[in-house]
């Protein structure tokens, strides 16, 4: 019974998070293409015709964090010895969110390293003004794709030509 309640809560968070409008302010990438560090600065909410930004973070911060965490977990793979705990068919849960979510210095902060054998290494911080920082370590530029997915853009990949 509890597992199904967790799943329903997760779907609700995904639905809420997918509705949050945001703008990418700045993207900073360091290191090699398959490792390194990525920091993306965002602003939640959309700007209306009067130049006022909506307060989407007030109702959507938890859902937005959950969406990014789900996408990060889904893309994550084992590294080194963590392979022994890795399960291919595994889902990020609301319980996982709560295990890694804190309120620090007036900000919501999700911080993860390894989760059940997956090298997640993703930090998400949402400030009281809707400013968001997404940071990843050893994940390449995956975070930029996650944000494109949330904005409704499809990620295109090169497909090898058939011989």
Question: How would you characterize this protein structure?
Answer:
By secondary structure, this protein is an alpha+beta fold. The protein has one domain (2-150). The protein has helices at 2-19, 57-75, 94-100, 142-150, and strands at 22-30, 37-44, 101-104, 107-111, 114-115, 118-119, 122-126, 131-137. The strands form two sheets. It has a six-stranded antiparallel beta sheet with strand order 1-2-8-7-4-3. A two-stranded antiparallel ribbon has the order 5-6. A hairpin with a 2-residue loop joins β5 (114-115) and β6. The radius of gyration is 16 Å and the shape is globular.
Topology:
Layout: H1 2-19, E1 22-30, E2 37-44, H2 57-75, H3 94-100, E3 101-104, E4 107-111, E5 114-115, E6 118-119, E7 122-126, E8 131-137, H4 142-150
Antiparallel strand pairs: 1-2, 2-8, 3-4, 4-7, 5-6, 7-8
Helix content: 25-40%
Tell me, what's the shape? Answer: globular
Strand portion, in percent? 25-35%
Q: Main β-sheet: number of strands, strand sense, barrel status?
A: 6 strands, antiparallel
| Strand count | 8
Order of helices and strands: HEEHHEEEEEEH
Structural class: alpha+beta
Oligomerization status of the protein chains: single chain
Query: What is the distance, rounded to the nearest whole angstrom, between the alpha carbons of the first and last residues?
Result: 51 Å
* Low confidence ranges: none
What would the average pLDDT be, to the nearest integer? 87
Overall tally of domains = 1
| Cα-atom radius of gyration | 16 Å
> Count of helices?
4
The largest sheet has its strands arranged as 1-2-8-7-4-3
């Amino acid at each position: 019974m509890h597992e199904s309640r967790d799943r329903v809560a997760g779907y609700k968070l995904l639905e809420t998070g997918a509705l949050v409008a945001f703008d990418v302010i700045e993207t900073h990438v360091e290191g090699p293409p398959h490792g390194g560090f990525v920091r993306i600065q965002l602003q939640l909410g959309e700007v209306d015709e009067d130049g006022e930004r909506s307060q989407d973070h007030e109702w959507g911060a938890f859902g937005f964090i959950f969406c990014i965490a789900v996408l990060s977990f889904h893309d994550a793979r084992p590294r080194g010895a963590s392979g022994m705990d890795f399960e291919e068919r595994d889902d990020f849960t609301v319980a996982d969110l709560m295990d890694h979510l804190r309120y620090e210095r007036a900000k919501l902060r999700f911080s993860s390293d390894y989760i059940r054998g997956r090298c997640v290494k993703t930090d998400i911080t949402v400030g009281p003004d809707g400013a968001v920082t997404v940071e990843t370590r050893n994940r390449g530029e995956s975070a930029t794709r996650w944000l494109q997915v949330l904005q409704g853009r499809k990620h295109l990949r090169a497909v090898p030509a058939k011989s």
